[in-house]
Specification:
Chain lengths: ~90, ~1300
């Protein structure tokens, strides 16, 4: 079952660009496995006029993670955009 | 020369003075541009490398990165696709530690040579590849297309095509050949493969594959569908024939049929497809490309929801590769350098497809197609680092030698070496015997030396072939002239390739053939512009398309074009784009901001600054990217049958008249030179067409044929005309600056013309070599030499170093080296790094040879300083031949020559000035007439009364008033020109010089035209007149002209309506220019009173359907409209001014009266001086001059000052006015924008002739006229500076293209 959140993550540890640990709703989650990593960018031409051209990458990470308790183990979709991390979805 | 220049503020850029100079100017610009471009490329490559290094530094790798090489990368030579310059790619690869890197350009090998050179410079090994689309085949899994693409609109011909390919039967889906499936405005989405050359043989296969993909459908063999022009596609058969032969890899990447099937989940079909490739090209030669662009499932925006993401694709692909034992390599389909440059690829993709930027148009899912290093890629292929390793291994297994730096002299004659050598020697000696009455020792020694050089270089075939081609061209009746350094060769003279005697004019052949240089000699042939394609056809027919091909020219994005194209994809309003784009002509795209800042016109424009910012950010970046391949205007490759293995060929755009276009190499002239392929340059020269036209008219007008070979050398009358500086229309010497120099130099033999042409170059002019030369030539200054040994070398130019040949000669005298080596030294003199070493060597040699050290140093200094200014004398001598010949034609056959100039328009001036030139030489201009005019301009012999009427001469005897500039022959000397051939043959010159007072034949005194030359006399009371052709009537089509010619003569307007197929606008315009005056009965008692009345009649007639019975009866019914009825009564009295105004609007020429003549009263009131009078005024006198602007130039000054050179035509001649920077503030706007001008300034003069005006004030004549009429002339005369926008009214004839009034000005 999928739950959608779109909540900002305060703290994410990375190694080689991939998330390893993240904190969400006060709990620390450890990434066990990266299932998928994709990228997207919205059309740069949609930026307001006069703004410098920039490709804004959005990284999507689908990871298995756990926060210590067994029932928290699940597939989490983390989204990184412009240095900000967000939790988008959880499959459990 | 493009004629559609618009009237913009960009006139400041200097324009070349005439056609040949235009070519020279273009070449000079190309060289200057080339140097700047090279510098730019080196810099951008260094930046690219630097960026790679910087990225690497900011990262902590784990150290265990496998070696890697990119096997799929599109450079900007993918033509509106990749955004990497070849050199940047090579530099980035080197910086990333790659030993090899591939460039796999889309649809061809366009960038191969540059990439090879760049890779050599950057120290990496190039891998050559190409990325080709496959012929769509809906029956074959993976080969189908979902959208047809507009390029493939051509419907399938005949029944459905039947294929009998290696893979079994099937047919090319006819749906693939028509639109309707998917958005047809996008190009088709055919599957693609990448071919990589493993060795030189494989490179040949790639060339053939590209050629096959570009070849049009082979209609004789339906099994071989080609891509067709502009839409190259490779067929399965061609895959087998070209790359199946070995030496190449087939890289099946993400767009390949196999990958497409995997993406569609059809794994079995993918396997079957892969097996077919293995069967045809072999297991070793097939590679599966694996790309990880981090594409999410469903692709960009999850639009294709059933498609797997990259991770799943990779897994399937690797499984398939492992199962069939096929090599898999990591690729990244690189299209731009840095991550943030993805926008460039997007813009280029949309520019290519001509669609606005949009998710579905950019052809990518993620922005990962940048130049990644092994470190960047390693995490993406963490599980399979062997894919990187394997890519590296594949790259290192590729080794191709393009043969750069080697020379390839083809065997074109089919003779063996010995036979060809014998033949050349025989013909050279026979030719020399023919050219010279006696073979002098000088000629013998020279020819022996040249032949020895040819023997050494093995160029016999080449000379025989070029001689053959030139002879063929002449046999077709096409005028041809040899240009360039080849004119320095006696062999060329003996073989009749060139017409300059190199012995007499002391031309050195070492500039042409030099054993120390590793390039082939270049022979350039000028031919008539109107017949150039005939020449191409001739060469192609003789040698076949597998041995000859045209050279391409890479058109790049320049500011204007870039702004338009990028503006379009950004969706900016067309008007705004237009406004911005029009402000740039020659500006390079990367200079746009600078230019924008300087252009006041744009500052008030309401364009969103943000949009402009984005626009410029992009335009700056795509500047200089190739965008299109065009046919080079002159180069033809001459090769043997290996041509198709060495260069990919495509077809140039189809020509007019159903000509399919030419086989064209994908390489441009620099590439071709680097490859050592032999090239013959066939340049089209309009002057030669103009001369041909004149020669064709002569038998009719003079009763006897005349050919160029009949032109005698050293004709005094011709030099008399040249010295008068009335040189408009003469090849090379017609520009205002040349006219001035003619006045100072006063040439009297061909050597002077050669000097004139050489001196009128930016270098000599800037260094002011002209002044000492002229002073010494006229004995005003003593001729001195630094050393007596220089006298024989510099004597011909009075001790001034003018020619390259002299620089070489001086170096020889100084050091005792031979001329070939001297040429090498001369080329390096400008190189600051090499010059000091050379100097030390040369001085040491000179001292050894007995020069005093001070002398040697002084000589060196002189030579070194002039080396860069000098001009190749052989070039100038080659130019001087058509210069002299055209001058001869102008002298002796002026009406015919003018008709030629008017027809082919070779020069820098607008046609209307040529018409005026006719009048200033006493040749009347006849208005166009449907019954008399041809499409082109012709010469008629008319009654003196009519001629006088047309010239505005109403006086009958001395003392009667004459038009401005004219005089009676008892007051002024007249030189009668062109009195017929009888005189010519007996007296060697047809000009009869009459002194003032000497009785002219007939009625005592006759009117003398303003030029002082009378070229209109046809004898027996008749005079020559030029009949205006119909070709320049705006909007008239060749079909309409043909229908007029067929149906002539017409008896009435109604008859024209019936039997000629004229559109109504054309008919109206013909009425406006006066072509119906005669037939419509203007001036007859029962005819319409004026042209506007006639035009109403025409309107009426053409509004009705043409009469019935067109097929039945030739005789039209008498539907004569009442020509004399009410119409003209409703019209106000129509002035001649209106008539001239509409003539200008419709044809750009004031045929019936000179436009300035309408302002005579005002000119008198203002005290305006005529061009003819100016010569007699003292220097520094303040004068006013007036006229029509015919040329405006602003050459770059060494001081950086901006100077405007303005030429005004006032119907007595042209006046030159110069505006220096200090007076530009007051006058620049007026000078730039007005067409009719009054200029005030001081007379200045250099030399005996050529008084000019240093302008201090300029006014718009028509504004002054209005002011005069309305009584505020003093106010108008007080106006200065740039008027406020709402007051910017300048008058120029409606509809007149800028190009028509002052070609030099745009």
């Amino acid at each position: 079952m999928t739950k959608r959140y779109r909540e900002t993550l305060e703290e994410v540890a990375e190694a080689e660009g991939a998330p390893t640990v993240f904190a969400w709703r006060g709990k620390r989650y450890r990434v066990l496995e990266v299932l998928g990593h994709w990228r997207e960018d919205p059309g740069w031409w949609r930026r307001p006029d006069g703004q410098p051209i920039r490709i804004e990458q959005t990284d999507m990470w689908r990871v298995t993670a756990v926060n210590g308790s067994a029932e928290s183990r699940g597939v989490y979709e983390l989204v990184q955009r412009g240095g900000e991390w967000r939790l988008d979805r959880i499959w459990d | 020369m493009p004629s559609s220049r618009s009237w913009g503020p960009v006139e400041r850029w200097s324009e070349p003075s005439d056609e040949a100079a235009a070519t020279a100017e273009r070449l000079r610009r190309e060289v200057a541009y080339g140097a700047a471009q090279r510098a730019f490329e080196v810099r951008s490559a260094a930046e690219a490398a630097e960026a790679v290094v910087r990225r690497a530094r900011g990262r902590t790798g784990d150290g265990s990165v496998p070696p890697y090489a990119h096997l799929a990368a599109r450079t900007c030579f993918s033509l509106r696709d990749g955004a990497i310059r070849p050199r940047e790619l090579a530099a980035a690869a080197a910086a990333a530690g790659m030993t090899h890197v591939a460039a796999t350009d889309r649809d061809g090998l366009y960038g191969a040579v540059r990439f090879a050179q760049a890779a050599a410079a950057e120290g990496v090994t190039p891998v050559f590849g190409t990325d080709l689309a496959l012929v769509p085949d809906q029956e074959r899994p993976g080969w189908g297309i979902t959208r047809a693409g507009r390029e493939r609109l051509a419907p399938a011909k005949g029944p459905a095509r039947v294929r009998r390919g290696a893979g079994g039967s099937g047919s090319v889906d006819p749906r693939a050949r028509r639109p309707g499936r998917g958005p047809a405005w996008l190009e088709d989405d055919a599957a693609r493969v990448i071919l990589l050359a493993r060795d030189t043989r494989g490179y040949g296969g790639l060339c053939r594959a590209v050629t096959a993909a570009h070849a049009p459908d082979d209609t004789t063999d339906p099994a071989r569908p080609g891509g067709g022009r502009g839409s190259p596609h490779l067929s399965w058969d061609h895959v087998g024939e070209t790359v199946g032969a070995g030496g190449a890899y087939v890289l099946l990447g993400t767009d390949s049929p196999v990958a497409r099937l995997i993406g569609a989940g059809r794994l079995d079909a993918a396997e079957a497809e892969l097996r077919r490739w293995l069967d045809v090209v072999g297991r070793d030669a097939v590679l599966l490309g694996v790309r990880n662009h981090l594409v999410p499932p469903g692709g960009r925006g999850r639009a294709r929801d059933d498609e797997p993401g990259d991770d799943v694709r990779i897994r399937h692909t690797l499984a398939l590769a492992d199962r069939l034992g096929v090599g898999a390599v990591a690729v990244n389909d690189v299209r731009y350098l840095a991550e943030e440059d993805a926008f460039l690829a997007d813009v280029l993709a949309c520019v290519r497809a001509q669609v606005p930027l949009g998710t579905r148009h950019i052809g990518r899912d993620t922005a990962e197609g940048w130049f990644k290093t092994a470190t960047d890629l390693a995490p993406l292929f963490r599980e399979r680092p062997d894919l990187l390793q394997r890519a590296h291994e594949v790259a290192t297994s590729c080794e191709v030698d393009l043969g750069i730096g080697q020379l390839h002299v083809p065997r074109l004659t089919g003779m063996s070496d010995e036979v060809a050598a014998g033949e050349l020697h025989r013909r050279a000696w026979a030719g020399a015997a023919d050219r010279y009455p006696r073979i002098t020792p000088a000629v013998r020694e020279r020819l022996e030396r040249e032949l020895a050089m040819v023997d050494k270089l093995g160029l016999h075939d080449y000379f025989l072939t070029v001689a053959r081609i030139v002879a063929d061209i002449r046999e077709l009746g096409i005028l041809a002239a040899c240009r360039g350094s080849a004119a320095g060769s006696l062999i060329c003279y003996a073989l009749r390739i060139s017409d300059v005697d190199p012995v007499e004019h002391r031309l050195a052949f070492e500039r042409f053939m030099n054993p120390y240089r590793d390039e082939l000699p270049d022979i350039d042939v000028d031919v008539e512009s109107a017949r150039r394609e005939d020449v191409y056809d001739l060469v192609m027919a003789r040698y076949g398309e597998d041995r000859t091909a045209c050279v391409a020219m890479v058109e790049t994005f320049q500011a204007r074009m870039a702004i338009r194209e990028v503006g379009k994809v950004l969706g900016l309003p067309p008007d705004e784009i237009d406004l911005v784009a029009k402000s740039f002509v020659h500006a390079r795209a990367r200079d746009v901001r600078t230019v924008m800042a300087e252009l006041p016109e744009l500052q008030g424009a309401r364009i969103d600054a943000g949009q402009l910012e984005t626009l410029f950010a992009i335009v700056e970046r795509i500047d200089g990217f190739p965008r299109h391949l065009a046919l080079h205007p002159c180069g033809i490759l001459l090769a043997d049958r290996t041509l198709t293995e060495r260069t990919p060929l495509e077809r140039s755009a189809p020509r007019e008249g159903g000509h399919p276009g030419y086989a064209m190499s994908q390489f441009d002239k620099d590439d071709v030179a680097a490859l050592g392929l032999l090239k013959l340059d066939v340049l089209s020269v309009r002057m030669l067409s103009a001369m041909r036209h004149a020669l064709d008219l002569i038998p009719d007008t003079r009763g006897e044929p005349f050919e160029v070979d009949d032109i005698p050398d050293g004709d005094p009358a011709t030099y008399e005309l040249i010295r008068s500086a009335r040189s408009i229309g003469i090849f090379q010497i017609e520009s205002p600056g040349q006219q001035e120099l003619l006045g100072r130099l006063q040439p009297d033999h061909l050597g002077d013309l050669i000097a004139e042409i050489s001196l009128f170059r930016p270098g000599p002019v800037k260094a002011d070599m002209v002044t000492p030369f002229v002073a010494r030539r006229h004995g005003a200054e003593e001729t001195t030499y630094l050393h007596p040994t220089l006298e024989p070398i510099l004597g011909e130019t009075h001790g001034v170093v003018v020619y390259h040949e002299q620089v070489m000669g001086v170096l020889c005298a100084l050091t005792g080296c031979d001329m070939s080596y001297a040429d090498l030294l001369r080329r390096q003199l400008g190189d600051d790094r090499k010059a000091p070493g050379m100097k030390a060597w040369a001085l040491a040699r000179a001292v050894e040879r007995g020069f005093r050290r001070e002398d040697a140093e002084a000589i060196w200094k002189q030579v070194a300083s002039f080396a860069s200014f000098g001009f190749c004398k052989a070039h100038a001598a080659a130019f001087a031949v058509p210069t002299y010949r055209s001058a001869y034609l102008k002298t002796h056959f002026l009406p015919e020559f003018m008709a030629g100039l008017l027809t082919h328009d070779p020069g820098m001036y607008p046609r209307r000035l040529i018409l005026d030139e006719c009048r200033t030489f006493g040749v009347a201009v006849l208005p166009p007439d449907v019954n008399r005019s041809e499409p082109h301009y012709t010469v008629e012999v008319v009654d003196r009364g009519l001629a006088d009427h047309l010239l505005g001469i109403h006086g009958k005897s001395p003392g009667d008033p004459l038009p401005p500039g004219w005089a009676w022959s008892d007051e002024r000397r007249v030189i009668r020109l062109g009195r017929g051939l009888a005189n010519l043959q007996t007296a060697r010159s047809s000009a009869t010089l009459l002194d003032p007072g000497e009785a002219a034949p007939g009625p005592g005194s006759t009117p003398v035209p303003p030029s002082g030359f009378d070229a209109g006399e046809a004898g027996n009371g008749y005079r020559f007149a030029v009949r205006v052709g119909l070709q320049d009537v705006k909007g008239v089509t060749p079909a309409e002209l043909a229908s007029l010619q067929e149906a002539r003569p017409f008896t009435s307007l109604a008859d024209v309506r019936h039997r000629a197929r004229l559109s109504r606008p054309t008919a109206e315009r013909l009425a406006q220019v006066g072509a119906f005056d005669h037939i419509g009965g203007i001036g007859r008692r029962d005819g319409p009173a004026s042209r506007p009345a006639l035009r109403l009649v025409v309107e009426e007639l053409w509004r009705r359907a043409p009469g019935k019975g067109r097929a039945g009866s030739d005789r039209p019914e008498q539907v004569e409209l009442d020509l004399h009825a009410d119409h003209e009564l409703q019209l106000p009295e129509v002035s001649e001014a209106d008539q001239v105004r509409s003539e200008l609007a419709v044809s750009g020429m004031d045929v019936s009266r000179h436009v300035v003549s309408f302002y005579e009263p005002l000119l008198t009131a203002l005290g305006v001086v005529r061009a003819t009078e100016l010569q007699h005024l003292p220097v520094q006198k303040v004068v006013r001059v007036a006229g029509v602007k015919v040329a405006l130039q602003s050459p770059q000054q060494r001081s950086g000052q901006r100077v405007l050179f303005l030429s005004l035509d006032d119907r007595t001649g042209t006046t030159q006015a110069t505006f220096f920077e200090r007076s530009l503030g007051d006058n620049a706007w007026t000078v730039l924008h007005a067409w009719l001008l009054v200029v005030e300034g001081r007379v200045s003069r250099r030399g005996d002739m050529g008084a000019t005006v240093s302008g201090t004030r300029a006014w718009d004549l028509s504004r002054l006229w209005r002011a005069w009429q309305e009584g505020w002339l003093p106010d108008a005369l007080a106006e200065r500076g740039t008027p406020a926008p709402h007051q910017r009214t300048t008058t120029r004839p409606a509809g007149l293209r800028a190009a028509e009034f002052g070609r030099g000005s745009a």
